[in-house]
Structures are given as C-alpha cells and as structure tokens.
Amino acid sequence: MNVEKLDAWWRAANYVSVGQIYLRDNPLLRTPLRREDVKERLLGHWGTTPGLNFIYAHLNRVIAERQQEMLFITGPGHGGPANVANAWLEGTYSEIYSAITPNEAGLKELFKQFSYPGGIPSHAAPETPGSINEGGELGYSLAHAYGAVFDNPQLIAACVIGDGEAETGPLAASWHSNSFLDAKNDGAVLPILHLNGYKIANPTVLSRIPEAQLEQLMRGYGYDPHFVTVADPRATDQAHRDFASALDACVNRIGEIQAAAREEQRQTEEHPAWPMIVLRSPKGWTGPEIVDGDQVEGTWRAHQVPLSGIHDDDAHLRQLEEWMRSYKPGELFTDEGLLDEAIAEQAPAGDLRMSATPYANGGRLLEDLRLPAYADHAVVVDRPGQEKASPMATAGGYLRELITLNPENFRLFGPDETASNRLQDVYEVTDKVWQQRIDDVDEHLARSGRVMEVLSEHLCQGWLEGYLLTGRHGVFNCYEAFVHIVDSMFNQHAKWLKVHQDLPWRQPVASLNYMLSSHVWQQDHNGFSHQDPGFIDHVVNKKADVIRVYLPPDANTMLAVTEHCLQTRDRVNVIVTGKQPTMTWLGPEEARLHFERGIGVWDFAGRETEGEEPDAVLGCAGDVPTGEVIAAAKLLKEALPLLKVRVVNVVDLMRLQDSSEHPHGLPARSFDTLFTRDRPVIFAYHGYPWLIHRLTYRRTNHSNIHVRGYKEEGTTTTPFDMAMMNQIDRYQLAMDVIDRVPSLRSTQAEIRQHFQDERQRAWQYTRDNGKDIDAVTGWLLEESSPDDAS
C-alpha cells in the first residue's frame, strides 16, 4: 500500500468536491481567487464529503489489488460532491458526459453545473454514474445494498451509513438483513458506519453512546465491528494505515465466510458474524477549522457550506482560497488540468471502476423473464358470473411456475403475508430465505429460496429496489392498508425512474410491481385499521410516464395484468385485487382482450338497444365494486325491463384520464362514446371516490358522474355490510340510477322503496346472524353466455 498515492487521490477528490460547491470559474486557481469565480448561490453538503472520499480511495485500492467487483452505496446521499468527484477522477464522468472533459475546461464545467440551474442536483442522483441510491432522503442505503447482492455471489456492496441516517427506522431495521443473506449464493455487504458526530444541528445518537455499548449493539445485530478512529485530524498517514488494515481484514473475512459456505461447510458456521467498519472522523475533515472565531471542523457547522459569506466578506474569500490550495492542486493536476498519471493509475480499470460498474446501471445486466403459458393458469369460464376463483391464488399458481422458470433472477418480497395473500403455491417450488435457527415446527424456511419475508415493509421495498436497480426482477406483495408505510420510499423510486428515463446512458430496468391484496372490502378478520385504499391516490401524483394502476375485476384479468407487468420496464405498476374467491366474469381470451383495452363495455351485464344511447351508465373499477355493479344491473333489468343500462368496467385506472394527461388516457371522443356526453353515470370505485372525479374532471360529462367508493366507514364485519356501510352495495347503486334518470325520479317510487327495504333487511340480517344474506353469498348471474363478453 502506497500511503502517499492514497492520500493524493483523497486530496484530489476533496479539491474537486470543494470546487463543485463554490466555483464557477478559475477551477485550478491559476490566478488569485476572485468573487466573480464563485457561484452566487452556494449549495451543497461538505460535512460528510471528505469521509466519503477517504473511503472511496481505500475501496479503489482493494478493487485494483484483488480485482474485486464492488458497488459503492452512499447513505449520506447529500454528500453528492464526493460521488461526482470520484467519477470524474476515474474518467467515467467524461465518458458519459462528453462536454465534461477530463481536463481544466471540463473541470470548470463540472464545478459550474453542480447545484446550478440546468445542472445536476447536490445529492447522489440518477445523473451520478455509479449510484443506485437516491440521496434525497435518508434511511434506505443498507436495504438497497442487500438487495443488490442477492443472487450476485461475486459482488461486494460497500455501504456507507451516515450516523444521522442510522437514526431512521428503515436503517435500524436494515441491520437485520444479514439474517436473509445466503453466503453460498449471494454476494456480501460491507457496512461502513461513518460517525462524524452531527446531523444538521444536533449530535447523533450512535456517535455519543459509549464505544463498548456501540460494539455490543453491532454484535447483537450479528456483525463483527472493526473500529477506526481519527484521533488527530492532521495525522492523515495514520488514518490511512488504520483504515486500510481494517478494510483488508473485513474483505479477507468475507472471503473466508463465503469459501466455507460454498464448500458445503455450513454446519461449522450457519450464521456467521459478518464484518463491518465503524469509522469515526471529524465532520468537515480537512476543511476550515475555525470560521469567524467559531469551531467548524468536527462540528455541526461543517454540515453544509462552511464559508457562506464570501460575497460580502473578504476574509471568507481568502479562507476559501487557502482551503482549496491546502490540497496542493499543483501536485494533483498537470498544466493541462489532467489528473496526474501516478494518481490516476490507482483507479481500477473499465467496469471495475465503482462509477462504471454495470451493477449501478442494472439495465446492462437485465435479462427478460421466461414467462409461463398464460392459458395453463387461466380459469375456464363457461358462462360469466357462475364460478368463483381467488385472483391472488390464481396469480400464485402463475408465480410458482415463473419461479421455476427463473430460479436466479426473480424474487417475491412481502412482509410475512405471502400465504395470507393467497400466494402460497410458490412454496411448492421454493422456500423462504432464513439464516437463523430453524426448528422442526417451522415450515418453508431454508438457507436459500426465492421468497423474502420480513415484517418490515421498508425492508421489502428497499431490498426490491436494490434488486431491480442491479438488473433483476421482482414483486412486492402487501396488505393494501399497510403499503402506505413505504409512501416516501415509493416517492424516491418514482422520482429516480422519472429522471432515469431521460438519461440515454442508463438502460431500462424491470418495473417495481406492487401486488396489493387483503384489501379494504374483503378481509378474514381485520377491521377498520386494515381498511385504507389510499395508496392509489398517492401513486397517481407521480409522473404519468412512470405510473400504472390496475384493478383487475376477476382471476383471469388478474392473470393478464400480472403477465403484462412482469414484462414492463421503468415503471411502477400497482395491482390491487382480492384474495377471497370472487366471481369470474371473463374467459381467458376475453380477459386478455379486456386488459389490453383497459376499459370496456360488458354487454353480458347491461341491457342496451342497438343504435340508441343508454338511459344510464354503471361504471366500475375493482373486484368488489364490479360485482355490486353487475348485481345492481341485474336488479334493474328485473324491475325495469325497458330501462337501457350500460355497464363499463375499468381495469386500467389511468384510462379515465385524458390522453393529453397520461399515455394510457382515453381520447375525449372515446371516453364520450363509452360514458356518453350527457347521461347519468353511477360509478362504483374501489378507493376514495374523489380520485375518480380528479381523473375525469376534464371530461364532457363530468358533471353527471356520481361516484360511490370508500368513505372511511369500516369495522370488523361482513363483506356486504362493508359495501352497505360505504354505499357501494347493489341496492344503493340501483337506487342511484332511479334517482338520476329523469324519467324515473318521480315514477318509480315503489321500486326504489323496494330496493331500500331489501337493503335494510340485508343490514339487519348481518346484525342478527353475523353473516351476509344468502341472496348475496349465493348470487349468480344466470343469463347470457361467454360469447357475449367483450
């Protein structure tokens, strides 16, 4: 190990990092620094950056010496200057962004673009080569790191965890990820807990607890911590030697653990203590020690921009120049502004560079899934509405074969709910990964498997994101009400994909697929706390190019939706459907056609006269609302045989938007053809009703659209009682039609009263008997044939 060369790389990275925060010109300080050389707006985070640069330099040494494939994940993502600086020093940045050349002119552009209008963000972002971890929010780095190494046995993910980030719930849970890491078939994660003492304004918990307690904490999580403490910020040679020694010990230990597992010696060490590093270094290390008489280095004052008064204070300007010259840029760069050859040669070659690794651009590694035959898993339908099947169980059979066909690049993630959500068929071909003790009573636990279950939605989401962004495929299944826990994580991933799509050098990755069940309308034994369909509302706020929402009404449509979503790229697909057996309305081919349209008239359910407009339209989206709409249409057929009612089912929710708003949106003319321009529309929707109004507010007939949906009425009750509590039941929908068709309002009071009485009887029956009436549970759509379905 050459300490001088390591230190030179570190100084170069620090210099380039400081330049990004401050400079717009004079990048190599060829002349004395002037105010005109400094940006008007000073944005960025210096405090964590020198520590990140220090770690990066040492990881490069290990990679070059051992030819080790490594992915660098920065939990302190707002330390973006470090990621960009090292990518430029390695040459990757200039290869991707040709205008940012590897010389003085390119360095000037690199500096100017940082946190600058039309430039790049201040944190690690999709624009940053080598990054898969969005720096806009903290807490997810360690989960991403583990997701990245699952099924990548040759990869080490070096994950730097900031001590502020270590206080978040998702990160605290992420330490448990080693209980799911298979040393035989997976890669390894090297956590580097970077303790620099402070967050924005406060000390951090892990930096202040006694070291013995911190060691016990890490050992309790199952890690073997190696402590490196920078006692003297100026004794950098010693810091390099100490960290290099710890890093070599950790990488050696990883190799030993993996060798033992891969030589079938598991019995000697079933759950090893994986190594990790705790690095204590001053916040803002190597930066200004004192500013305006206040201690800065090693304190919270170094968090963002240590010298912020440059445009008004000559002393600050002089101090900035002294700071930058302390890195001795004349020793680091040639007269042309090229990185000195002796320093540059420390970088690994080609794809071994952490800024160029294909694992950080997963589309380069992505292989298409081998898909099961759709017809082999579809439900046979002789007549609509005669047989029941669970959409989720049907999907479970499909996923079972999918796992068989794709044993190394597909995983199913969920918070202890795979079987509860009726996907348990997958256990016929795989197990749940588990590295801790396995007792005789346990079922489907094994050291390796395709199912990842942990009671943390944060971990499931983080693992899956890391898995997808490094070039694999997966599904996250969850209870609908509790997927809200990852609202913020979804935000970050959706924003990542939005930017990712605009970068030609980033290759498309597999979509993030949510499969949500145990939904608001039908559950086994859960009540009000488990009844919240609002994740859809949250999702549709994001960029239309990224978001898709599907509400398959039956098992065959669920199958068609699942098949499609698994083939998409750069999307977030949200699928919401029931796990309980529900009516199957469409045969396999009809279901596929209906899904491809996304929306359509169901002739078998309504009654229309050819060439005439309907008197009313019954719309529906969601499995339970669809069943209630079809039952309402049947009630109306029987009671009012001359009434013309059209039934329109929506499986692709975004079809309701205008085509100018969403790629899947219906053109105005098509929407008017389905829903008419002036007839009453009663729409039964799975979620909160106002979302339908939001999606259709531009439509010609919006003023005539009346939406029924979930309105925060719920408890532990029967499915039909839930429908009645929220007024999406068949009787209420039938009454809504009578109330809104002008010719019926005052002429059909007796029929309306009959529906109202039947509704009251059904309500009372649930109170008296604790179950739904037979007329509901045994209901069948008796007439018509499958040929009528369209």
From TrEMBL:
Named cofactor requirement(s): thiamine diphosphate
Give the GO molecular function terms.
aldehyde-lyase activity; magnesium ion binding
Query: Pfam families in the record, alphabetically?
Result: XFP (PF03894), XFP_C (PF09363), XFP_N (PF09364)
- Entry keyword annotation includes Lyase: yes
Q: Which terms are listed as keywords in the entry?
A: Lyase, Thiamine pyrophosphate
| Every Xylulose 5-phosphate/Fructose 6-phosphate phosphoketolase C-terminal domain range | 579-779
**Protein's GO biological process:** carbohydrate metabolic process
Which family is annotated? Answer: Belongs to the XFP family.
Query: HAMAP family given for it?
Result: Phosphoketolase
Question: Which NCBIfam families does the UniProt record give?
Answer: PRK05261.1-2, PRK05261.1-4, PRK05261.1-6
Name of the protein described by the UniProt record:
Probable phosphoketolase
Write down the species. Answer: Arthrobacter pigmenti
